[in-house]
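Marked as duplicate of an earlier ticket. Keeping the data here for the record.
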Amino acid sequence: MAAVVEALRAGRRFALFLHLSPDGDSIGSTLALGLALERLGKRTVWISADPPGEQYRFLPGIERFRLWNEYEDDWSQYDAAILLDCADLDRVGPARAAIDRIGRVINIDHHPSNRRYGDVNLIEPGAAAVGEITARLIDRLGVELDTAMAYGLYTAILTDTGSFQYEATRPDTLRLAARLLEAGVRPAEVAQAVFESRPLRVLRLLREALGTLEVGAGGRLAWMTVSRAMMDRIGAQRADTEGFVNYPRSIAGVEVALLFIEEPDGRVRVSWRSNREVDVSKLAAVFGGGGHARAAGCTVPGPLERARVQVLQRVAEYLQGEGMRPGPGGSAGTGGEGRR
């Protein structure tokens, strides 16, 4: 952590980037660190290739996030790009063009599969969320947490621990949550906004996705599919599928759950979850992805049906004790799923 603290203290201008389909950990941690840096007199801009989901609009400062292709600046004037919760540089999508022009990267993450692509890296796989790392970093910078930072950090931790249900949740996680409440966070407000206030289109998309639900491998594997046609018909956004993979995961007896999402360019994004036994980060790595033992991701070439068959075949073989075999060439850098 000392190297990151030194780099942040030395610089004057920083651009902070969200990963594609930003989740609560990415958004909340970035927001909190951006505000902390400004308390130190630094200039910051917060950039994303995808807009934050509507459920995060309650966060103080959320309006500060800008879409990378709508923001014009001389990126070479920034001291560093800061990426939080981003296992691979490609996870920022087309915004990587701006990062390449900045040149220097600070990489802060908790994914074991992180590729350590930064000039300065702070990787803590034991952290339940990047929000935990960010809280310690803000302390090391000597910045006192205010309510806005606390809301960002609490949202980061709440979402990445599944409301403090996942096995990565530790005593220190709950102690930090208590501290954030003491800083002014109202947990009912966060829970209502994040989990209980969705646009109607999200429920319509979920209805269609649940219609694709299937189970295999003797009941140990379940999956759903979101096609591009579904998204276009409903007018859904990329962020609207957040949490969908937990529906197949919740079926009694299921060990591995998958969500297949067809991207506009024809590739297929796959979200992986497991319950107790299977390290899905290893399975996702077969297809060029990564993540955590209980949550991982990858992106594989289309078309949708072929991608689905290839992934399901590998998972079924694994669950039946045949082990993992080399998979088709998937794209790396999609291990941005939260730690479970």
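See parent ticket for discussion. The chain has two domains: 2-195, 200-319.
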